[in-house]
């Protein structure tokens, strides 16, 4: 089958397009998906370079977002049929550990992630447990579906569940024009919060405004901290920061007393410093998160099917151009999602 195979960690030159990668077998309880669209995520770039603390078996296929049709159904699978349109929840949960029993399958102690622990969507076919599938409504395209897994689910889990953003509160995100940001801005606006976001180019600011952002800034040319303090003199209730050490100090300072910062990325490094004193003195909450539950993704999928959330697809490239897609993301020149078509 056609696939982008990673035989060793490194740069974009390690993304090898092949037409004869073995078609994956399916185990009981699994289905074989013919991939119609997959998407590039920041984590793909990290895995390509070598994910900290996780040994990735080679050769490996990246891709946590998988949308397509079921080609084959394994034994024991119920509720799904060949030819059905589906999208995957990006995780595979064991269903047996204590956290799964509590309904926190996204925190499964034995978790697996498509494109990291097992082959992902940068391929013509992918094997997936039926337990990780969601039926894809006809009103949601395959391309749009790829925006709802890794990026969209992270935004939904952050805004709705962990951050619990409410009407009348304020929300801020660095780099709001990407996959996470374009969904987060829409969800924050839906709650009735005042929304602020940044982008690295002026042309992207109009996109953020069209999605519902009240205040937009160019983080390459504006003094974001100063302008935010003008508009929010008491600080911001909720901030999503997936950039890391480069923005953490500013995010910390922008928080209102009692505010919350959500961390979900390591673009500029894995470690930073913060004041324990200021954290308790200002009653701040700093929380980490990744992805979300399958039921949350189902809720986001329903909002998209009803066109209450509009996934933003900035670029669509053939699978063989995965290296170009990675370069595009690394340079931050995209808007919304970058989709690959096998």
The H-and-E topology, N to C, reads as EEEHEEEHEEEHHEHEHEHEHEHEHEHE
Based on helices, strands and strand pairing, what is the structural class? alpha/beta
The residue fraction in helices comes out at: 25-40%
**Number of DSSP-assigned strands:** 17
Can you tell me the CATH topology of the largest domain?
Answer: Quinone Oxidoreductase, Chain A, domain 1
Distance from N terminus to C terminus (CA atoms, Å) equals 10 Å
Q: Major β-sheet, in short?
A: 7 strands, mixed
Strand content: 25-35%
**How confident overall, as mean pLDDT?**
95
Q: Using the alpha-carbon principal axes, give the shape.
A: globular
Per CATH, the architecture of the largest domain is Alpha-Beta Complex
Which stretches of 5+ consecutive residues score pLDDT under 50?
none
CATH class of the largest domain: Alpha Beta
Q: Can you say what the CATH homologous superfamily of the largest domain is?
A: Medium-chain alcohol dehydrogenases, catalytic domain
Radius of gyration: 20 Å
**Helix segment tally:** 11
Number of domains: 2
């Amino acid at each position: 089958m056609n696939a982008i195979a990673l035989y060793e960690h490194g740069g974009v030159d390690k993304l090898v397009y092949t037409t004869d990668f073995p078609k994956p077998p399916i185990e009981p309880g699994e289905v074989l998906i013919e991939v119609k669209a997959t998407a590039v995520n920041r984590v793909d770039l990290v895995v390509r370079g070598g994910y900290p603390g996780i040994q990735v078996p080679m050769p490996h296929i990246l891709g946590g977002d998988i949308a397509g049709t079921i080609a084959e159904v394994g034994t024991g699978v119920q509720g799904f049929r060949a030819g059905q349109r589906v999208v995957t929840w990006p995780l595979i949960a064991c269903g047996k550990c204590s956290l799964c029993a509590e309904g926190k399958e996204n925190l499964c102690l034995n978790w697996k992630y498509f494109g990291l622990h097992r082959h992902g969507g940068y391929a013509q076919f992918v094997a997936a447990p039926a337990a990780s599938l969601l039926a894809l409504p006809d009103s949601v395209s395959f391309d749009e579906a790829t925006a709802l897994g890794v990026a969209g689910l992270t935004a939904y889990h952050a805004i709705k569940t962990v951050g619990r953003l409410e009407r009348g509160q304020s929300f801020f995100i660095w780099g709001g024009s990407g996959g996470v940001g374009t969904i987060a801005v829409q969800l924050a606006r839906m709650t009735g919060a005042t929304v602020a976001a940044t982008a690295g180019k002026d042309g992207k600011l109009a996109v953020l405004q069209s999605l519902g952002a009240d205040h937009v800034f160019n983080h390459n040319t504006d003094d974001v901290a100063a302008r935010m303090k003008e508009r929010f003199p008491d600080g911001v209730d909720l901030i999503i920061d997936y950039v890391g050490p480069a923005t953490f100090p500013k995010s910390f300072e922008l928080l209102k007393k009692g505010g919350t910062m959500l961390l979900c990325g390591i673009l500029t490094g894995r470690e930073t410093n913060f004041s324990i004193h200021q954290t308790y003195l200002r009653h701040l909450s700093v929380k980490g998160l990744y992805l979300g539950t399958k039921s949350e993704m189902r809720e986001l999928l329903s909002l998209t099917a009803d066109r209450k959330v509009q996934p933003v697809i900035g670029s669509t490239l053939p699978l063989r151009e995965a290296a170009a897609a990675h370069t595009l993301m690394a340079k931050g020149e995209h808007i919304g999602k970058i989709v690959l078509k096998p």
